[in-house]
Structure formats: structure tokens, C-alpha cells
Amino acid sequence: MSQSQDVVVRIEGLHKSFGPLEVVRGVDMEVRRGEVVVIFGRSGSGKSTVLRCVNFIEDPTKGAIEVAGIRLEGGHRTRRKRAAIRQLRLHVGMVFQQFNLFPNMTVLDNVMVGPCLAKRGSTDEIKKHALELLDQVGLSEKAGEHPIRLSGGQQQRVAIARALAMKPDVMLFDEPTSALDPELTGEVLSVMKNLSTQMHMTMMVVTHEMGFAREVADRMAFFHEGRILEEGPPAQLVTNPCHPETKAFLDAVL
């Protein structure tokens, strides 16, 4: 695999098992700075598990993960490894299917909490950056509201701003629109598109939104039974897939 300095995420020989069930079976992948990689496939194909291994929400059973030059092997956690995981996570932002906002905090406080805990500057500096991010996702007027007062699409945009507040090297999106009604999906995808086109954010996105993938992704990877079955540019993969499994999946979702 490439040793380029532009590689932000490197996944090598990744395996993940839950008891006897092997969910990820030897995945190799690189994501370069500013690249948007869309991961797609059927439920249970290992897509989300790969993302969760990148920031060690799940511990890889075997293989290695490298983010922003911090390399960690799979297997059991030691005290030293736990410290390294904390360092690695400072470089990774993650947005989940559910928004996971703190209901007792205002929108602004939700965005500020991570940088404040990590002491990423003075309170005034963190607040200024948080307000800029809320403006970027179109929610500056909601800074003083609590999450319960927001729509699902607005909550997900707050979750994106919260992840960006840590100034990550890579953003991971785990089916960020799957819990939203169709009319709210567009506003979240629009924010994600702007992250790519305006901020040149490095992104790994698990999604079934093929329109977004065709428009924004630099590369797509089709997962099947824990492996990457096929990958390539969207124009090639969506219009002319090589593998019958990829074609069957695309025929079903398009």
C-alpha cells in the first residue's frame, strides 16, 4: 500500500469478530487528505463496524488502524494502548445514525463541550469557533435552544458541528440520514456536500444515498460479507459495476 504523506486513514488486514461471528474479514483501505470515500452494501456487510474500528469504538480483532500517523494494532487493550486510543480519537470526528446530543445542554453547549473538556483553547475561543460552525450548518439562530426543540435534520446538523468543533483530520459518518424523514435528509446531505467542496474535509461515509455518492464521493467501496468486493470512482461503480453482487444491490436501491 502507498506510504504517501497524504494518507490520513490507513486500514490494514482488518478483522472484527463478535464471538464466533466474523463481521469484517480482512479489509485494506486508504483514505487520502481531502478524499470522500462512500462505503455501501447490504445490512450486516460490515460497513458500520469498519467505521467503528477506525476510532476504536470497537476494538479490531486483528489488523492495524492508522489515523494521522497514529498506528494501533488490533487485539486487547493495554494501559499504553488506551492512552494511544485517546490520542487517535482527537483526530477523528464521528456522526452517528442517532444524534446523541446532550438533551440537558443548549445547542451551543453541545458544540462546545468536546473542545472545552480537551482544553482546545480558551472558553471565548471555543465559543467563537462553535458559533462559526453553527452558522456554517445554518443553525446560528438555534444556539440557545435545547435539542428537543429541533427537528431531526437540525439535530443531525448540530451533531456534525459538534464533531467538527474538535478540528478532526477525518470525519466518519455512519448512515447519518437513516433516522430522518426524506424531506429532512436533503439538508444534512447539503451540509456534508459543503464540507467536501468548501472545507475539503476528509470523509468516510456509510450511506445508501447513491445520489449523494455520485455527486460528492471520490471513491466508492461495496462491502459484501465483511470484505470489499469492489471499489472505484462513482461513475464507474454505479453505471458499470464489475461484480454481479454490486449490480444486484445497485439495481435494488436505484
Can you put this structure into words, describing what you see?
- This protein has 254 residues and is α/β, with parallel strands linked by helices.
- The chain contains 9 helices and 10 strands.
- The strands form 2 sheets. The chain has a 6-stranded mixed β-sheet, with helices on both faces.
Write a short abstract of this structure.
The protein is built from 9 helices and 10 strands.
SSE order, as H and E? Answer: EEEHEEHEHHHEHEHEEHH
**What structural class do the secondary elements suggest?**
alpha/beta
β-sheet strand percentage: 25-35%
CA radius of gyration is 18 Å
Question: pLDDT under 50 segments (min length 5)?
Answer: none
Strand order of the largest sheet: 6-7-8-3-9-10
Mean pLDDT: 95
> N-to-C terminal Cα separation, in Å?
33 Å
Count of beta strands: 10
Architecture blueprint of SSEs:
Layout (H helix, E strand, L loop, with lengths): L6 E12 L2 E12 L3 E6 L5 H8 L7 E6 L2 E4 L5 H11 L2 E4 L11 H11 L5 H14 L15 H13 L5 E5 L7 H16 L5 E4 L3 H7 L2 E6 L2 E6 L1 H6 L4 H10 L1
Parallel strand pairs: 3-8, 3-9, 6-7, 7-8
Antiparallel strand pairs: 1-2, 1-4, 4-5, 9-10
Helix pairs in contact: 3-4, 3-5, 4-5, 5-6
